[in-house]
Design goal:
Blueprint (H helix, E strand, L loop, with lengths): L3 E4 L2 E4 L4 E7 L1 H4 L3 E7 L6 E7 L4 E3 L7 E6 L4 E6 L8 E8 L13 E2 L3 E6 L1
Length: about 120
């Protein structure tokens, strides 16, 4: 069973936008926290943005002001729109879900993970 499935990645020129989608199973979508992480080659996985059930959001500093996380409850879907993409945004983007976290961007606390969707930005 696939609990989280991402889509929407692609290869774009710097300055363009992308909207990533993550369709969740009922159990994954019911978790308290959902988040987007990313991992570039040779680097550690890092948190991009997270949202809890109440709608509280936390954005990483490197994406703040040019991204927006949202949810479509009727479709069990999480979205991430990123504007003004930069070459340093190139990474595999993952959707994740967790019931409890010690820190909202602590990847080890997330129980459910998708396979990822690749975002490549060229200058």
């Amino acid at each position: 069973q696939v609990d989280l499935m991402e889509s929407g990645g692609g290869t774009v020129q710097a300055g363009q936008s992308l909207t990533l989608s993550c369709v969740a199973s009922t159990i994954a979508y019911s978790r308290t926290y959902m988040a987007w992480f990313r991992q570039a080659p040779g680097k550690e996985r890092e948190g991009v943005v997270a949202i809890d059930r109440a709608g509280f959001t936390k954005y990483a500093e490197f994406i703040k002001g040019r991204s927006f996380i949202s949810k479509d409850i009727s479709k069990n879907t999480l979205f991430l729109r990123i504007d003004n993409l930069k070459p340093e945004d190139t990474a595999m983007y993952y959707c994740a879900a967790a019931q409890d976290v010690r820190s909202i961007f602590l990847a080890d606390d997330y129980e459910y993970w998708g396979q990822g969707t690749q975002v490549t930005v060229f200058s």
